[in-house]
Specification:
single chain; mainly beta; Copper Amine Oxidase, Chain A, domain 1; 2 domains; 7-stranded antiparallel β-sheet; 2 helices; 7 strands; globular
């Protein structure tokens, strides 16, 4: 599966500091990939225990929680929606989302609305199994 960089955990502020690049990446991911439309103007803060990043606006809440086994989970209004990956890069925890599997892009030709048949992908082609979050 291909991965998409979302943000560096260590760059998210506890107080009112800003990291506009990482914050915009995260908000864009929530808007575009998770279909969460209320993120414009949302605030992003990290908990003092360094285990939760909260994205909130009005009564809406998204949390990204790192548990004791170093797994990150994205929750929308207390429902688990996606597992995220943590990678250590230069001593910082970078958070990534898994996109669609790499083989998925091979299903579409240059016009996404025109689906190729599996037989067009060559003899013996077997796509990777996909596990979707619940």
């Amino acid at each position: 599966m291909s991965e998409k960089y979302l943000f560096s955990w260590d760059n998210i502020p506890i107080e009112d500091e800003k990291n506009l690049d990482d914050e915009e990446n995260l908000l864009e991911y929530l808007r575009d990939d998770c279909n969460i439309g209320w993120t414009k103007g949302a605030k992003i803060r990290k908990s003092r225990d360094d285990k939760t990043v909260c994205i909130y606006k009005d009564e809406n809440l998204v949390e990204i929680v790192i548990d004791d086994t170093e797994k990150a989970t994205l929750k929308v209004n207390d429902s688990i929606t996606r597992n995220l990956k943590i990678k250590y890069v230069n001593g910082k925890r970078d958070i990534y989302s898994e996109n669609l599997p790499d083989w998925w892009s091979n299903v579409f030709d240059s016009k996404p609305e025109k689906l190729k048949s599996i037989s067009d992908m060559g003899p013996g082609y077997i796509p990777e199994p996909v596990a979707y979050p619940r």
